[in-house]
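Board work, copied verbatim: HDOD domain-containing protein
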Amino acid sequence: MHSAQELVSQLDALVSLPTVYHRIRDELDSPDGSVIEVGRLVGADPALTARLLRVVNSALYGYGGQIDTVGRAVQILGLQQVHDLVLAMSLSSVFSGVRPEHMDMHRFWRGSVMCALAARAIARGLGLPSAERLFVIGLLADLGHLAMYQVVPDLAYEAQVQADRSGEPLADTERAVIGCDFAEVGAALVDHWKLPPCFSEVLGAQLDPRLGGDSAFDAAIVHVAAQVVRADRYGESSEEAAARIDSSVWVQLSMSPASLGRIREEAELNLAAYVALFFPKLSVQ
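↓ predict structure ↓
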């Protein structure tokens, strides 16, 4: 049996966040953090500069091509938002060489973007100022599976097959077959990467938001968003997906199960455009 920390330690030899991300993070954490310095750091990476400007000028922010310099983008977005965007844009390059057995990478990233869009739609609907951060956390929500399929592919596949056959929750079969579930592994990975503590808290509690402490509300949002992804994967109706969510989660979010259909429609509507923005080498099928 394997622990989440053990799997992450093995994955660490294969993937790591780019240096520019860590430098931006250091600048953000510094009491003397400078917008000018973050702009300089991003501007020193031509590929990252091009992608950041493309995202900022997309429908995601609605500036319609008006932002033509990194400095201007950083001024408008702020340090925190630039940090989150650089993190999101780094994922495709971080895992570009990872080709896990038994895993369809197209479907994985497609599902990740759908989770991100659904989480953002929920947060926006609730009027939360952290909607864009929920997008990034949603994008990271399934990273634990990527680690599992890379480090223990046969066990991860066996757990999926057992869950599909029995109808049991996948996390339950993962704990029985592997020793930990994807939420634990994802939380351990982002903690190892030293991302903001709320990322680890949300990912670790996404299966049971009550365990999220101060991040329980955000964990509930990701929990609901994940059901949208599952419904898409298995061809379920929004009503079926909503019925799987415990009533306490709906109460916690002050939402009704009927709202899931709207959230799903919004995520599906934007899916192709956002996959193209963050994972340009993929094509939505």
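The first helix runs from residue 4 to 11.
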